[in-house]
Amino acid sequence: MSGLGRNWVWTVLLLAIIVWSGRSTASEMSMTDDFIVDAMGRRLNASAPFRRIISLYGAHTENLYAMGADDRLIGVSRHEDWPPEAHSKPVHSYHDDLERFLAARPDLVLVRPMIDRGYGTLLEQLEAAGIVVISLQPNTVEEMLVYWRILGRLTGRRAAAEEMVETFRDAVACIEKKTATIGDKKRVYFEAIHDRMRTFSPDAMAIFVLKTAGGINVAADAMPRRGSAIADFGKERILARGDAIDVYLAQVGPMNRPSLETIRKEPGFDLIRAVRQGQIHLIDERLVSRPSLRMIMGICRIGRILYPDIFTSGNAPSGCLGHHCPGDAHQTE
Asked: How confident is the model at residue 322, as a pLDDT?
């Protein structure tokens, strides 16, 4: 091959890498008076609320219901689990062909970066057909509050979104005031993916939940994976800190399905004090990693594990502290 030919090939490869990197690297969501910028860098002038929305992520659906925008939902994903009323909506999937989406006549399709990266062709076709596509998924609590406000702007429910923000902040402040009195706080390892021995990034929502409940994250120095709430840690480091782990928590969901027995029988885990003492607990990921108001329930659920004398049992977060916490009435277990 001639030098000119080789240079042409390398140029094409370099351009392909640049294009792929641009599509696969998430941006920081933001909102100004004039524009919304989604997690993939799309810039939208949302001057009027959308009225026919298809949501392809359970968190979007849950939050739209929470802010009273469910009347604008004309379709949801096949994996909806909350609230129960969402099951009555028509089901859509990123596996569907373009015609099925066009037949529903949406003016907005809400996705998350994972769908953007895996099903970019479909999303490009939707945009070419004049349908707005917005990709949103916060990784931290501060991003979550921005995310709620963006959803409020997209649906004309800005006041309701602001109320969600205040509800969450008030409940967290109430809980933090109670846990501030704890002298000897429990040290916790919070598992994200068991078979790869991964935990959470120090600024992940699940770690915020743990710390708000009064726990100390023993893996605070875990190395975050780029653009992810998951962090590498490894068995060797877990076992090296085994005697310092009072409680072993494991998130349970589609990406991590351990049982108590799986963790108990993991080779070497008898070096972990929490495992020896039976302090292994499974936590539904929807309560600790999903960006919704049910995160308050996750805080109280972990709080009851760590400090049962402070977090009393109950069927709703209003009972978890023994007194009313602002916003607790919005939640049910």
From this structure: 57
Locus of tokens 């049992």 = 313
Q: Check if CATH label 3.40.50.720 holds for domain 181-330.
A: no
Please check whether residue 151 is in contact with residue 53, taking contact to mean a CB–CB distance below 8 angstroms.
no
With a cut of 80, say whether residue 169 has pLDDT above it: yes
Residues 23-156: name the CATH superfamily.
Nitrogenase molybdenum iron protein domain (3.40.50.1980)
Are 251 and 286 a contacting pair, CB within 8 Å? no
**Residue 52 in contact with residue 105, Cβ under 8 Å?**
yes
**pTM score:** 0.86
| Beta strand spans in the chain (E) | 30-31, 36-37, 43-44, 53-55, 73-75, 108-111, 132-135, 187-191, 198-200, 216-217, 223-224, 230-232, 247-252, 280-284
- pLDDT by residue (tens digit) across 247-277? 999 999 988 999 999 999 999 999 999 999 9
Question: Which runs of E-coded beta strand occur in 21-105?
Answer: 30-31, 36-37, 43-44, 53-55, 73-75
